[in-house]
């Protein structure tokens, strides 16, 4: 583990992260994969996915949507370290003196106990077997990783997302070719936002711009400061959500 990687490992051990959700999923032609969502002191929501890419090939990776992962593809970000070392407990605490990544398990003499994930950035078959076993104990130990305040923000965010997708999926079926956005007077296409007071839909971009100038709905004049989830949804374009906005 080089110096840059060690710095990220140290941050994962020192900083406070909150585990918000964890689940398994499987796609056609792939083995079972794992998805985690965490947040830190900044309130940003990060998604870490341990993904089996094929049933036939022994190829599994750990991906994160943070900027560090996108910029430094040859390093493991602190969020992935947090999941592997703390939440799953896959590896023992790293000791620079020995410079080895050891599995956190009881082993007999002569049994392989060293992982090369930080060298290859690919999880071995043994890595995945241990992850599958350790994943089952997360529910028992979840109180160690959870934060009530961040969990409340996360629940609000999830509700916004459900509401948002319901509007897009349900209202799009009702829109006819002649309907227009009441703000820009253009056809209703793309992302839509709805006022819960009068149930009128607008382009999300148009409503964002409208609410930057005032707080009333363009149609029914209801105070939308409590309903301005369109502002929050706009931030999803950057790939990172800040839960403190919810």
Question: Could you list some keywords that capture this structure?
Answer:
single chain; 246 residues; alpha+beta; Herpes Virus-1; 2 domains; five-stranded antiparallel β-sheet; 9 strands; elongated
Overview in brief:
This protein has 246 residues and is an alpha+beta fold. Helix content is 36%, strand content 17%.
Would you give an account of this structure?
Helix 1 crosses helix 3. The two termini are 38 Å apart. The protein has two domains: 3-144, no CATH class; 155-245, 2-Layer Sandwich (Herpes Virus-1), CATH 3.30.40. The strands form three sheets. Strands 1, 2, 3, 4 and 9 form a five-stranded antiparallel β-sheet that branches. The chain is elongated and about 70 Å long. Residues 167-174 and 227-231 have low confidence and may be disordered. It is built from nine helices and nine strands. A hairpin with a 4-residue loop joins strand 2 (33-39) and strand 3 (44-52). It is of the alpha+beta class.
